[in-house]
Write a structure and sequence with these properties.
This protein is mostly helical. The chain has one domain. Helices cover 48% and strands 0% of the residues. It contains 2 helices and no strands.
Length: 50
Amino acid sequence: MHRLVYTEAYERAEEAIAREKQLKRWKRDWKIELIERENPEWRDLSDLLV
């Protein structure tokens, strides 16, 4: 099962790509902390993109 539990908005694709690359270098624990801080219940956020 896949859920969207974290999202960030950017005006330019270049900014989004740079951030994605940054996050991919992060340790798993750091990513979990980021999600926990922004979405502590791990709700599915995919409805927000519609």
